[in-house]
Amino acid sequence: MKLPSLLVILSIVALACSRHCTQPRQRQEWRTLNDGQKRAYLDAVVCLQSLKSNGYYDGAKSRFDDFQVTHQALTDEIHHVGQFLAWHRYFLNIWEDTLRSECGWHGSLPYWNWSIDIDAGKFDQSPIFDPHTGFGGNGADEAYPTAGFFNNLTSLPGWELSAQTGGGCVTDGPFANYTLNIGPGTLKRKHCLTRAFNPSTFGGITGQNVKDTLAQYPFETFRIKLEGFPHIAGFETHTGGHLGVGGEMGNVYSSPGDALFYAHHAMLDSIWAKWQSVNSTDRMYQISGPSSVNVNASQVTLDFVLPMTGLGDNVPVRNVMDIKGGFLCYTYV
Ligand SMILES: *[C@@H]1O[C@H](CO)[C@@H](O)[C@H](O)[C@H]1NC(C)=O
Ligand SMILES: *[C@@H]1O[C@H](CO)[C@@H](O)[C@H](O)[C@H]1NC(C)=O
Ligand SMILES: *[C@@H]1O[C@H](CO)[C@@H](O)[C@H](O)[C@H]1NC(C)=O
Ligand SMILES: *[C@@H]1O[C@H](CO)[C@@H](O)[C@H](O)[C@H]1NC(C)=O
Ligand SMILES: *[C@@H]1O[C@H](CO)[C@@H](O)[C@H](O)[C@H]1NC(C)=O
Ligand SMILES: [Cu+2]
């Protein structure tokens, strides 16, 4: 055998091995981390906020902004479409990788099981809002010029603005006093991180509603139930978590400005992974739904390429279907 062809074979073998997932990262529920692990994650996020932007978009100043601005720019292509879950899964993975590679963090992305808090009737007292070992609490009780889910809160059925508390800047925890450069909504304006807890959305994130979501079949009804509005009126897991926290998290464009976004979406991703694992032969590679919000859009397929505008490579949906497939390598515990 000639040397060049041997090299080709060796590199194919090496590539196949590197794509093999032998030690998946263990993504844990927030409250199962010890205080040191919680701090390490929050410190890594603060680190990302202090690193300089790679300059993908005007207006992004930090590496943290790079993530938020990517989501903001792509919002109309990645929500209310068949690739909604796939895109967010991939986005979270880049976030997790970046915290590790650029901020020296050694952990796995934590998820937030809000059902534990809702079912106990103690949303406000969730350890995830702890000022010292969490993300800080509700916004101050004051009006702040922030934009709602579609830059217009009143357009959401079931939304009771009167039930809202807070609304102003978050005043404790690691992100108090942090100045966001991207958002609110589609804007790029310096502002504080806001939250506005709203119990009128909590029905979307109960343990029962997670069960009801998992019971959907096929993928088409599952993804519609999970994403919720505007496919269906009222609140589901996706919208319930976003608008239950409210403020920046309540805006479909700029929500990654609140680091809770990643813990919330990891929970949604875990629900999808659980749904897939019920019968992976049948469900692992099920994907459907329109590939854009345009009228008569074609159906999304496994070959549909997820846009990442430089934050990461653009990859086909197929690559992110299996969380232990090799391109991705993690699991939920
Ligand atoms: C989330 O919490 C609910 C309510 O306690 C529980 O039934 C469910 O098993 C939990 N799920 C995960 C993935 O932790
Ligand atoms: C907000 O929604 C209401 C009710 O759907 C609508 O009348 C109003 O024009 C919207 N405002 C903006 C700024 O989009
Ligand atoms: C935020 O700023 C205020 C006023 O400067 C200060 O009192 C407070 O300690 C700061 N909070 C944090 C968490 O840095
Ligand atoms: C899983 O799905 C495959 C393919 O559709 C099917 O043949 C099989 O019976 C399913 N297994 C179970 C346990 O439902
Ligand atoms: C969508 O498809 C329908 C039925 O084929 C057609 O009548 C309509 O003109 C199409 N709309 C657009 C915007 O392409
Ligand atoms: Cu999103």
From TrEMBL:
The keyword RNA-binding does not apply. PROSITE patterns: PROKAR_LIPOPROTEIN, TYROSINASE_1. Keywords: Copper, Metal-binding, Signal. GO terms for molecular function: metal ion binding; oxidoreductase activity. Gene3D superfamilies: Di-copper center containing domain from catechol oxidase. Residues 1-18 form the signal peptide. Residues 79-96 form the Tyrosinase copper-binding domain. Pfam families: Tyrosinase (PF00264). InterPro entries: Di-copper_centre_dom_sf, Tyrosinase/Hemocyanin, Tyrosinase_Cu-bd. The keyword rRNA-binding does not apply. Coiled coil: none annotated. This is Tyrosinase copper-binding domain-containing protein.
